[in-house]
Amino acid sequence: MQKRVLAGAIVVAVFAAMFAFIAPQNTHAKTLEPESFSDLRELLKDIKTPKIEQPKWLKEQIAAEEAARLAAQPAGARSNLAGRIVTYSVIQKGVTSADFATFQANANATMNDSRGWARLGMSFRQVASGGEFVLVLSQASLVPSFSSACSADWSCRVGQYVIINQDRWNGATTAWNNAGGSLRDYQHMVINHEVGHWLGHDHLSCSGSGNLAPIMLQQSIDLQGCKFNPWPLASELWTTR
Amino acid sequence: MRTPVPKLSKKQFLIAGAVMAVALAAYAVWSVWLWNSYNSAAADRTASAKRVTVRAVVAGETNASANVKGLRAASGELKGIENICEPSWQIAWQTVISSLETTVYACKTKVRAYTQTKAEIDTVVAFLNSEQAVLGVLSPLRNTKKLSDKSWDSTVLAWQTAASDLKQIESSAEYEPVSSMLQTQVNQAVKAWQQLKKADKSENRLEYENAYDSLDQAIAGMSDAANTSDKILQRLLTRLDASVQKL
After folding, report:
1. Fewest CB atoms within 10 Å of the CB: A17, A198, B211, B224?
2. Å from B1 to nearest chain A CA?
3. Could you give the domains of chain A?
């Protein structure tokens, strides 16, 4: 009996022997970056828009356009005014709802935009009073007060006054809006158009259906088949000032 | 008349008991050895898997391809790791003993973290495999030389081929948004090339210049795909990192 009990105890004791696992150590991997695994960005840096030599016909067209532009310019017109600073002041006339500070800032941005008259090399600087021209934000009904040639529906330029109709500034025109043009683009257009008059430009017609409108086309009134365009064309880059 | 049941003598009984005890002891010793082997095999396998995984995830190689290779190796190392928790048939019944059942349960719990990490690695690898296929298609579009209307045909063909080949690639689900963006941009570039050739043939300056602008925009837009790719990959790598920290 005692031997039976002893044999059983040996078996149990052996089964009771256990082996512990070694606890794993935590290793903090450093933060992973996509560029360690991905080459896409590097490849895309090497895929660039190719430089394409102008075809012969295009060179000829550009040369012909340049010749026509020079021929169309009045006597004394200049197209390179590098370093010239044009000063202007800004006033309000009548009751206006447009934010005046925003108007001043946006008008200055348009005049100095690299797509606009600044391509002539000139820059425009607002001054407190006086200056070479006066930019006016005018109540619509008071625009004709500058000249009988001006309409309460549109903006105008009379002598040194570049007059922006505040209704147009705030809401563009029906035609512009229906064509999907943005208000900011309209504001660019109207500033460039009226300043263009001050720079010595008269009105122009559309050069052909589907073409970009010259800035001196009365785009608020009739596009004549051209596409809306808020910036002066290359052929318009001259001034008599 | 009943047959009398043979009775073991006391001596015979003791001998039989001793033999049984020896047999049981031998089985017990063998069982211990098998459980030892089970534990050390599990420990070795998980330690090795962890080493390979951590090394791959730290991404210490100098180029992306080598790092991707490291991830693939880690996935291979983790393949089938869940099988290490099954004890051999000779001792499997012993899991009725609660401490041994706990041993097996602890092994399975530990290994679950590794299978989760393998799943995360596989997702990243699938993403990068898709990307490598796309890189292969886009590589011919690298360009440095100036073109003319006399020499641009091979470039136009390269773009058309890329558009067609991109469509054939089967991307992983995570890479699909990137692939889709690249396809859109490459298709727009192909369209712009066609417009450019048409404008050149008809000597239409406005259409020529518009087509060139469209081409420029289409190519510039491809960088958005790189931004999207980085964002998605970062998300996948963050998940991978989190799972590795649980090993």
Report:
1. A17
2. 33
3. 81-236 (3.40.390)
CB A162 within 8 A of CB A194: yes
A27 in contact with B at a CB cutoff of 8 Å?
yes
- In this structure, the strands spanning A85-93 and A133-138 are parallel
Per-residue CA distances from B183 to A79, A122, A158, A214 (Å) = 44, 43, 54, 37
Our CA-based measurement puts residue A164 at a distance from the nearest CA of chain B, in whole angstroms, of 31
- Give the side-chain half-sphere CA count within 13 A for A160: 12
Nearest to A37 among B128, B147, B208 (CB): B128
Give dist(CA B234, CA B225) in Å, integer.
14
CA nearest to B53 within chain A: A29
DSSP B3: P
Averaged confidence pLDDT in chain B: 90
pLDDT at A20 over 70: no
Find the Cα–Cα–Cα–Cα dihedral B58, B61, B67, B69, rounded to 10°. -120
Question: In whole angstroms, what is the distance from residue B19 CA to residue B94 CA?
Answer: 22
Report the C-alpha gap between B111 and A24 in whole angstroms: 12
The whole-number pLDDT of residue B9 equals 86
pLDDT reading at A26 higher than 50: no
Largest CA distance in chain A: 135
- Name the pLDDT band for B79 (thresholds 50, 70, 90): very high
| Distance (Å, whole) CA A106 – CA A112 | 10
Q: How many CB pairs under 8 A join A and B?
A: 166
And the tokens for B119?
A: 């799943």
Check: CB of residue A196 under 8 Å from CB of residue A116. no
Closest-CA distance, B230 to chain A, in angstroms, reads: 6
Please check the confidence at residue B119 and state whether its pLDDT lies above 90. Answer: yes
Chain B CB contacts of A21 under 8 Å are 39, 42-43, 106
The Cα of A54 is separated from the nearest Cα of chain B by a number of Å equal to 7
What is the domain partition of chain B in residue ranges?
A: 14-117, 135-244
Comparing CB atoms, the residue among B31, B54, B103 nearest residue A29 is B54
Contact assignment for B233 to A34 by CB distance below 8 Å? yes
**Distance separating alpha carbons of residues A183 and A168, to the nearest angstrom:** 9
**Tens-digit pLDDT profile for residues B208-241:** 988 998 898 899 899 999 999 999 999 999 999 9
* Sheet bearing A161-165, strands edge to edge: A123-126, A85-93, A133-138, A161-165, A156-158
